[in-house]
Amino acid sequence: MSDASMDVNTAGESADTDVDAVVIGAGFSGLYMLHKLRKQGLDVRVYEKGDEVGGTWYWNRYPGARCDSESHIYCYSFDGDLHEEWEWSERYPEQPEILEYLQWVADRLDLRRNIAFEREVTSATYDESSDTWSVEMADGERVSTRYFITAVGCLSKPFRPDFDGRDEFEGDWHHTARWPEDGVDFSDKHVGVIGTGSTGIQFISAVGGRADHLTVFQRTPNYAVPARNRPLEDDRYEEIRANYDDIWERARDSRLGMPFEHEHETAYGLSEDDIREVLEERWQQGGFRFLHTFEPGSILSNAELNETVSEFIREKIREKVDDPETAETLVPTDHPYGAKRPPMDYNDYYGTFNRDDVSLVDVDAAPIERVTAGGIRTTDDHYDLDVLVYATGFDAMTGALLALDVEGPNGRTLEQKWNAGPRTYLGLMTHGFPNLFTITGPQSPSVLTNMPMAIEQHVEWIADCIGYMDDHGYDRIEASEASENQWVQNTNMLAENMLFSEAKSWYRGANVPGKTQVFTPFPGGLDNYREICARVARDDYDGFELGRPSSSAGDAVSEADD
Ligand code: N01
Q1: How far is it, in rounded angstroms, from Cα 530 to Cα 461?
Q2: What's the average model confidence in pLDDT over 509-513?
Q3: How many angstroms does the Cα of residue 175 sit away from the middle of ligand 1?
Q4: DSSP, res 425
Q5: Closest ligand 1 atom number to CA of residue 363
Q6: Which of 30, 408, 427, 448 could make a disulfide contact with 433, Cβ separation 3.0–4.6 Å?
Q7: pLDDT per residue as tens digits for the range 297-314
Q8: Are the beta carbons of 4 and 32 closer than 8 angstroms?
Q9: For the chain, how big is the Rg over CA atoms in Å?
């Protein structure tokens, strides 16, 4: 282990420093990675662009921001004391409460002393002569490290469409993922919002009625299922606490990292009426429990069952919206339910469109031509706006990783390697980039699961792997090309056998013009994935190549031999 004990909060003023591990990002993943590696005796430094911990929950402060996973499972499971001491107030946690939770964890585990805030990484370069990464910040600080670990999140690089005239707008504009800390005053304002994904849906139901007028620019309608949020009563909380071991075990052993039972494995043998009856029961329960009416993989791969479920939701939408024309504009017919990330409805999203001060503009039928000084011009009309909100999502899965400007041995960049789509083994490492670990990287279950479950599994796997390397005298690891090729092929094949290809989603990079379209998360289930990762570790990191310190620059690394 190296011996760098400087106070990292003054790191920018100091000379170059060596550490064992650099972790980028202080959200759920970065905080736990720091905790784990520090406990293993490593000297770890976390670099965080924001001025606080929180990651996603630091940046996404828009009105209505809330987590779609239920609060009692949207937290760390690794330390029983944490969930004994913390108490969530609602079934689904709101952004300020999640942020407060992560700040509390950082204090409780004394993590801040190893985190450098307001430090943006601008490049990371591998030095073959020393088998170390050199990581450079925007302020010129450079640190060299044995292990370079990204904890940058899957949805953290905002995407803002490059509309003609975008910069001519004279009102206020905001992207939901970079919302001002002091909030935005909507009163007496004409507000426009572009986007009706999970974020837009939360934003629209929270802001409808708070502005003089809210105009929603929708390109593709979505299937919002009621969340049925409510306060968590004391007795319910006691029940959760008493059963936490079982809850975590079931969550880890499930496809989506959620401990919900499904009513039926498949729809086989059920009549249409039977199916609708169980769907109605689950609709009343709300949230992701609806997706668990059947084994979620079956809804996501059986086209006939999916159409019944999709049609069930479409009818619910029609019932809620008074004006039939508006209702039809809100009804999704272009993609099957679940082929895009299913959003939740917290606050009568569809009912919001019955208000006189909310209007819907179909920008699929009449596309946005340009942003003007005073609003938005579509091919049909001009909409006067004082405030323009971009709820237009993210350059997901790869955007934040590529922004790190990573350069491996021989000068090959990650961007060059991934120009036809990301390639990894298990989503944990990519061939040709030794000692670079990607928490919830492409081709791991990540966004298809309850994120903290996926994050914990990755963090623990990486920490175990580093422990193994220390125990066996290795100092270099990378994914073999053959195992990576096999894994990418496997992930693609699984996705092709499901309904994901029927939607233009950010899962496939389809939301960002020019981005290579390839399904990115591993769709085979967290439970199966965990087993695969555990087997790989048990088999001495099968599919990875490990090297010893004696393997000097240019030497081929060798397969684990003991
Ligand atoms: O982003 P999105 P998001 N012209 O990409 C539209 C997570 N999340 O921020 O569908 C017009 O889903 C775009 O239209 P279309 C969750 O995983 C979690 O809402 O491409 N419209 C779409 O309507 C989620 O899936 C929580 O036709 C344009 C919208 O912008 C992920 O974040 C809460 C456009 C973008 O939707 C991303 O959600 C919130 C254009 N040029 C979010 N470009 C939790 O609860 C884009 N759009 C944890």
Answers
A1: 10
A2: 97
A3: 11
A4: B
A5: 11
A6: 408
A7: 899 999 999 999 999 999
A8: no
A9: 24
* C-beta 447 within 6 A of ligand 1: yes
Rounded alpha-carbon distances, angstroms, from residue 459 to 1, 478, 529 = 19, 17, 14
Q: How confident is the model at residue 527 (pLDDT cuts 50, 70, 90)?
A: very high
How far apart are the C-alpha atoms of 562 and 552, rounded to whole Å?
20
DSSP, res 387: E
Q: Which atom of ligand 1 is nearest to the CA of 504?
A: 20
What's this model's pTM, rounded to 2 decimal places? 0.95
Q: What number of residues does the chain have?
A: 562
pLDDT per residue as tens digits for the range 58-77: 999 999 999 999 999 999 99
Identify the CA nearest to 93 among candidates 60, 68, 56: 68
Is the Cβ atom of 95 under 6 angstroms away from ligand 1? no
- Gap from CA of 17 to ligand 1 centroid (Å): 40
The pLDDT of 386-396, averaged and rounded, is: 98
Please count the other Cβ atoms lying within 10 Å of the Cβ belonging to residue 249: 12
For residues 134 and 234, give the distance between their C-alpha atoms in angstroms, rounded to a whole number: 50
Question: From CA 555, how far away is CA 561, in angstroms rounded?
Answer: 16
Residue 144's alpha-carbon distances to 2, 356, 401, 444, in angstroms, are: 11, 59, 19, 27
Tell me the CA–centroid distance for residue 393 and ligand 1, in Å: 4
Ligand 1 contact, 508 CB (< 6 A): no
> Residue for token digits 């939360």?
202
Using the predicted structure, report yes or no on whether residue 186 has a pLDDT greater than 90.
yes
Distance 101 CA to ligand 1 centre (A): 25
Residue 393: CB within 6 Å of ligand 1? yes
Tokens of 452: 């903290």
Q: H-helix or E-strand containing 100?
A: helix 95-108
Tokens of 161: 């469409």
Q: Residue 550: which pLDDT band, with cuts at 50, 70 and 90? A: low
**Closest ligand 1 atom to Cα of 447:** 17
SS3 string, 162-176, reads: CCCCHHHCCCEEEEH
Is 219 a pocket residue for ligand 1 (Cβ < 6 Å)? yes
Q: Whose CA is nearest to atom 15 of ligand 1?
A: 220
Question: In angstroms, what CA-CA distances link 296 with 250, 302, 448, 532?
Answer: 15, 10, 11, 20
Atom of ligand 1 nearest to the CA of 392: 30
Residue bearing the CA closest to ligand 1, atom 8: 198
Tokens coding 160 = 């803002």
